[in-house]
Specification:
By secondary structure, the protein is an alpha/beta fold. It has seven helices and nine strands. The chain has helices spanning about 1-15, 25, 35-45, 70, 90-95, 145-160, 190-200; strands at about 55-60, 80-85, 105-110, 135-140, 160-170, 175, 190, 205-210, 225-230. Helix 5 (about 90-95) links the parallel strand 2 (about 80-85) and strand 3 (about 105-110). It is globular, with a radius of gyration of 18 Å.
């Protein structure tokens, strides 16, 4: 009983402060503490991903604006935010509640996430953006994705990041063998496999911040957070990816 009351108080305070509030009917469909996770990840993006107030940002899987809402308080008028998702209700709310107040924030409903042959990448890239467009691409809404869809989104993220730009994404990284006693997401893989897959997309891993989903201690958040830079094809032979960084919980 106390939790709904606290939620109503938080909603009322946000409205008084002039902050947008996604309806509970939408927030409840996004895993985790909606406000807390959004605030935490903004901090991670700034601290570890070098997010600047004037950055051009793409979020693949914006859902009900969990990352976008805190970003409205950080990105300046010269910045650009683009969000894509196949969730029509979440996109409609973001378009109606956020874009009129923040004209440099745009949201699109795209049918990319579950609408291609699972056995291969599509012949045409489904995102409506040119290559090398964004300074930062965020891909953190992954828990519900089949492996082929996740890899498709990684491919698209790498395509639209400019050289020198940043990929910020969550993963499920395994550091011990899988057994039948544990429930492991279908997209889980080893750290070396994740690094290799990103490297084939010209994304050089800079930092790995381990999460607590698999009992890892110390941990930063629930899922593992991976930060990578897009490198030029000609510079790959000269680039040596640094080792992973394990952050203590703050």
């Amino acid at each position: 009983m106390a939790r709904p009351i606290i939620r109503c108080i938080d909603d009322s305070l946000d409205r008084v402060r002039g902050r947008p509030v996604a309806p509970w009917a939408l927030r409840s469909q996004v895993p985790g503490d909606f406000r807390k996770i959004g605030r935490e990840f903004l901090g991670y993006m700034v601290q570890f991903g070098d997010l600047r107030p004037d950055a051009h940002v793409l979020e693949i899987g914006h859902r009900a604006g969990r990352m976008a809402i805190p970003l409205t308080r950080y990105l300046g008028p010269n910045a650009r935010y683009e969000g894509v998702d196949d969730w029509e209700e979440g996109t409609a709310w973001c378009q109606g509640a956020l874009t009129p107040r923040y004209p440099n924030f745009h949201f699109r409903n795209v049918r990319m996430m579950n609408h291609f042959a699972a056995s291969r990448l599509p012949e045409r890239a489904p995102l409506p953006y040119e290559d090398d467009t964004f300074d930062v691409v965020i891909l953190t809404s992954i828990v519900h994705l089949p492996q082929a869809v996740f890899y498709q989104q990684l491919h698209e993220a790498a395509r639209v990041i400019r050289t020198g730009g940043t990929y910020i994404g969550t993963w499920f990284l395994l550091d011990r063998p899988w057994d039948n006693q544990r429930s492991v997401p279908p997209i889980a893989c080893s750290e070396s496999d994740a690094r290799q897959r990103l490297w084939t997309l010209n994304l050089a891993v800079q930092t790995i911040l381990r999460g607590r989903w698999d009992g890892h201690k110390p941990s930063l958040s629930y899922q593992d957070l991976v930060i990578a830079r897009k490198v030029a094809v000609t510079s790959r032979s000269d680039f040596v990816a640094p080792p992973s960084v394990e952050a203590a919980s703050g």
